[in-house]
TrEMBL record:
GO biological process assignments: bile acid metabolic process
UniProtKB keywords: Oxidoreductase
Annotated Pfam families: adh_short_C2
GO molecular function list: oxidoreductase activity, acting on the CH-OH group of donors, NAD or NADP as acceptor
Protein name: SDR family oxidoreductase
Parts forming coiled coils: none
Family: Belongs to the short-chain dehydrogenases/reductases (SDR) family.
Amino acid sequence: MNLFDLSGKTAVIIGGNSTLGGSMALALAGHGAKVAIVGRNQEKCEEVRASIEEIGGTAKSFEADATKRADLERILSEVIAWSGSADILMNCPGKNSATPFFDISEEEWDSIMEVNLKSVVLACQVFGKYMVERGEGGSIINISSVSSGPPLSRVFTYSASKAAVNNITQNLAREFAPSRVRVNAIIPGFFPAEQNRKILSPERIESIMRHTPMNRFGEAAELQGAAVYLASEKASSFVTGTVLRVDGGFGAMTI
């Protein structure tokens, strides 16, 4: 029984050129999926593609702006032309800011909401519609955050956007379930990814460690198991609308 065999599946990783997205892309490829790495930075996309090919996997990089529907529709067509299907969608784009609440400009608010929320909505519309109409099921995995609830201090817009991602995940799980398209989210704890390093002062790190029972940051590879589990129809066929924490116990802490 190989519950985690993704052979014959194609995974589209939007934001697959990021630290966490790239690690999860590697895991899906390592379990047999063809992986489409989608991002604006093609140099980083190519780095992920090369790492996948080094382990004998199959991958291709695609350039797109995840906040533009036309780009996502083009990517869907290009992926199908390349591999014949799009069975797994992972939404990894992320943008953060530590701007104090009264100083948040409309431009900053809109920019973060576009990257963190609008991109997820658009991708679920474009790829979700394809999966529903195809009638062969599918898996959509959204990347949320521990800041989605309760919210973290000093990341107001980011927290609001990720709370909305959780809500959309559960709404779409209900909407798509009759078509066997599962929609779930992963809540990573604190992983020192690029967007988080900018706001990790020594004082903030100390506060995070006090609230994380495992008393350490996560490693990108520690998200791989959750990604493969949710991607696999064999392993998680009755799992939809769930928000899976990979956070070192952060969500279990109070005082």
